[in-house]
Amino acid sequence: MEAIAEKVAEKVAGRSWFDALLEEGVLCATLYLVYVQGTTLLRLAHGVYQKAEDQVESKVQSFQEPGKKRDVTANNVPFEHSMFGAADWPLKALVAFLILSHFASTFFFPTYFATEQLWLARRAAIVLCGLWFGFRWKSNYTRLLIRHNPHDRDRYIVLDKVATIGLVTVAALSLGEVIGVAFQSLLAIGGVSGIAAGLAAKDLLGNLFSGALMYVTRPFKIGEFISAGPATGKVLDIGFYNTKMLTVDRAITYVPNSSFTCSTITNFSRQETRYIEGTFLVRHRDISAVDAITADLRELLRAHPAVDTQEQPPRAFLAKVGPLGAEIAMNAVTKPIGFDDYLVAKQTLLVKAAKIIESHGAVIGPALPPNWQQ
């Protein structure tokens, strides 16, 4: 009790008891008010910020599209999902810790709380509450992005993980500086060994960074059929080190992610329109019927429901005349259809084209010498 009395006497040294109690009371009342009314204050700040943002957006829209009014409040973020909502509980926790630490250092345990230790604890609390706020804001923002752009969900999840690593790293460095850990000395000591380890793990790190890059850029996703270098097949899984694929011959293949960054990737699953082409070789004596044949082939392509006549007009023409005969070529672009429907449409058109050629008396195939025809 004597030690406590001495500590309290030090607190009020040079001041009257009334002034000391008034100062302590104002400080505690302010902290208590922030703790109790913190949510109300944050909601008020969120409303002011949202109103200012709506005014700015309204002015931008009126400048870009004069005379046209649009509801600028449609994209407003609720308080629970905003930056201010993310700061609610971390701010309360920080204020509660400041109140408790102040009372403990002043009245309850004044002999056990040195000034340096108290400031150290308060700085650590600020760092931890800041990390908590960063996690909450990151999660709220990620959920908001996914809700507005669900097709980019994988990309936002990866960005969320990268942001998590960044927050933890910054918090760890800040906390280390607060408690007196010299990270610069540790990094300097481990510099040589870090370089050696980095060279040894070059391929591993390359695959890891390539995997993260693919999650962000999304040249393909799970379930799509792709071709990249020697690998062609369906993507079963995308890991941070390799990608699991099912090839056309039903074999499971694991492809290192670094191979995708230096290869041309063809994503067949995202191919909306497809290309149909065919070439028929007829005899030299059938060249007189080529005009009628190509006209009927063009009409065949225009009439098929799967052919897109707007994207590219269907073509049928005499491609070349060679020593084995005359080549009649046709090509067209399909409407957005699936791969199986594309194969059916291609087969139907090629069969009907062959029948059209034969209906004009032409023979498909090279002109064979007499001894070959026997």
From TrEMBL:
UniProt subcellular location: Membrane
Protein name: Mechanosensitive ion channel protein
GO biological process: transmembrane transport
Positions of the Mechanosensitive ion channel MscS domain: 203-270
Family membership noted in the UniProt record: Belongs to the MscS (TC 1.A.23) family.
Keywords: Membrane, Transmembrane, Transmembrane helix
GO CC annotations on file: membrane
Keyword presence, Transmembrane helix: yes
Membrane topology: Multi-pass membrane protein
InterPro entries: LSM_dom_sf (IPR010920), MscS_beta-dom_sf (IPR023408), MscS_channel_2nd (IPR006685), MscS_channel_TM-2 (IPR011014)
Coiled-coil parts of chain: none
Keyword match Transmembrane: yes
Transmembrane segments: 93-113, 119-135, 156-175
